[in-house]
Predict the structure.
Amino acid sequence: MQDVAATVNDFFKAKILAVQGYTLLSWRSLRNLFSPPRYLTDTLGQMDIIGVGSLPIVALAGMFIGAVLVLQTADQFVRFGSPALTGDVVAIALVREIGPVITALLVAGRVASGIASELGSMVVSEQIDAMRALGTDPGKKLVTPRLVATVIMLPMLTIIADFMGLLGGFATSFFFIHLNPSQYWYSAYHALEMEDVFQGLLKPFVFAFIVALVGCYYGLTTRGGTEGVGRSTTTAVVAASVTILLLDTVLAQVLLSGR
């Protein structure tokens, strides 16, 4: 019984220490934004890796999600004689909720795992210690450029995913339910309000902090050699995905209550 209690106690201690370490890393990363050096070249390189590298999967996912939304809802609208409302549903669902969340989850699976793997490999090969010995701050050199790049690129990827989703929904509605193109785009455009666009663009900025800093935290805290790198990579993806879904619920409640 005492062993079980000790195990549970150690588990909660580890989680509390992880939250503390993540919060400290977040504070240091934000503080580093306002002090030189800024490593612009590293930031641009990470923008290419994170943004351009994630573009194909985000665009394809957005298009297929839009198509599936139309396939799942069009029959009901046709049954009630309102097929023109298909554009409304696709636009609101994508911009307000599905687009930001799916994009963040896809980027988390690709970017958070890559960051954790890269930084974890540097830790176990003692490259981080070598950087400190040479007087270079790993936080400024490794963490802040990845954070800035993710914060810049994730909202752009979300916009692309939303557009591709609308395009996929249009193609499906045109070929399967023979909806007039002007009806679809007119209803999609007029269904969106400024609050919907604001909510859809606010979430990616919040999710970007989670994706970048969770990957950096688990990468920098890697222990146990190459096996530890694998554990850090897996844990980073799981932690980032769960946190994104949790924050999405909180943000949705807060934003909807403020309307």
